[in-house]
Amino acid sequence: MIRYSIIAFFMAVVGMSHAQNIQGFVYDLVSSQPIQNVEIKNIRTKEVTNSDRNGAFKIEGQVNDYLAVQIFGYEADTIFYYDDAIRRIYLNKDESILTIDEVLVKRLTDNVLAKELEKARNAGKIVEIPRNQGGIKISPSRLFSRESKNARRSMDILYEEYQARKIDRRFTKHLIASLLPLNEADIALFRERFRPSVEFIENTTEEDLRAYIIESYTVFKNEKK
């Protein structure tokens, strides 16, 4: 009996050691004010929680989980939890194209980023294809309008962030920590110094990415001497 109790206790401890919480805050995208009572659902576990008056939430989950986020009056969104860090989720309640700057764009979730990029791309189009005539013609009014210029500027900023996130999803501090004996500060330096290109990330395998990280570590160690 004692033997079985020890085994059960050991299994419980192991289970607890693998338990993980995803923590974060939910804010309004434009005002940066916290949003209370937002529903957050872990799609894998089906667990549901709600944000408190400070916009804070905690839900059981792990790296690579997806969180469905929704509240009446805001666009529903899905968050990919690709690194074990506190998440700040910004929800958008305005359907119009946002006035984008480098600070605001970093608050966008992946889904909202893709939507805003598509909006900016459509608003910034400068060509027209006549239905009853062949060929393509340039539209000067759209080419030189302030709205079109702002849309194309927004598209550039949005696309740059979109590409950066492709890298961040795979070149994570979680992956680096699993391969290299680095503390948190050194991991941040390593990620900045050896950040791969988008082309590399899009075409490399997981095995090759791990090899790249390990090979880069040799250079990193020599630079710190």
Automatic annotation (TrEMBL):
Tell me which positions the record assigns to the signal sequence: 1-19
Source organism's superkingdom? Answer: Bacteria
Query: InterPro entries given for it?
Result: CarboxyPept-like_regulatory
Q: Which UniProt keywords apply?
A: Signal
The molecule here is called Carboxypeptidase-like protein
Q: Native species of this protein?
A: Sphingobacterium alimentarium
